[in-house]
Write a structure and sequence with these properties.
Number of helices: 6
Shape: globular
Radius of gyration: 22 Å
Oligomer: single chain
Strand order of the largest sheet: 1-2-3-6
């Protein structure tokens, strides 16, 4: 049984990272930064952007901050991997193992960008990036940018004019741009939240079940 759960975790991590990197490399080498392709009119776009720092493009402390974040990501990934292996050894629910593997794969997928993309790609500003350019990449080890591309501007419009300061300004509901790795993390967390009762049976219920069996004998 444990062997099966190790297999679930390994296959999940491998497939998510593979799909994530194939999509990122395809976008990086076929689109320039800021280019957008409409997939479903007014709903789904491929919008190529690069995240230089934290979530939603926030930047923390320049180059030194980027290095700190990359090291923090490595530590976090190591912790998640340890937790995943520990959960398998404890024979946790297979669904929970799958979710933790999704989270690990997502974190590792984005870490690959941070660690290596600055070394193996040149700049994407107003031109297509080259893979393994002769003149070298746009950054150094652990200082690469995360490639994002999925954009779902579900609702667009303007704030009512009566709202102070932002009245009349345009807005877009869900304007985040994300990638396969981000999706894996979000899906993993969401499934754990929805099925936590199944993944973590409450101890009182187990005790009550034992007591019920004892009284029936």
């Amino acid at each position: 049984m444990l062997r099966k759960k190790y297999l679930i975790a390994a296959i999940t991590v491998f497939l998510v990272i593979l799909i994530d990197q194939v999509v990122k490399i395809a976008v990086k080498t076929s689109m320039f930064s800021g280019e957008e392709l409409e997939v479903i009119k007014n709903f789904f776009y491929i919008h190529f952007t690069e995240n230089p720092g934290m979530a939603f493009g926030m930047v923390f402390g320049g180059d030194s901050g980027k290095l700190f974040l990359s090291i923090f990501r490595l530590i976090a990934i190591s912790g998640i991997a340890y937790f995943l292996i520990s959960s398998i050894k404890k024979d946790m629910h297979a669904g929970f193992i799958f979710c933790v593997a999704l989270i690990l794969a997502g974190a590792a997928g984005n870490m690959i960008d941070c660690a290596f993309y600055g070394l193996i790609f040149d700049d994407s500003t107003q031109r297509l990036a080259q893979l393994f350019p002769a003149r070298g990449g746009y950054g150094s080890f652990l200082k690469g940018n995360v490639v994002d591309m999925f954009y779902f501007p579900m609702v667009s419009g303007y704030f009512p004019t009566w709202i102070p300061k932002i009245g009349g300004e345009p807005f877009t509901f869900f304007n985040a741009i994300f990638n396969v790795a981000d999706s894996a993390i979000s899906v993993g967390v969401a499934i754990i939240f929805v099925f936590q009762g199944k993944f973590f049976p409450s101890e009182p219920k187990a005790v009550a079940s034992v007591e019920e069996e004892a009284t029936s004998e």
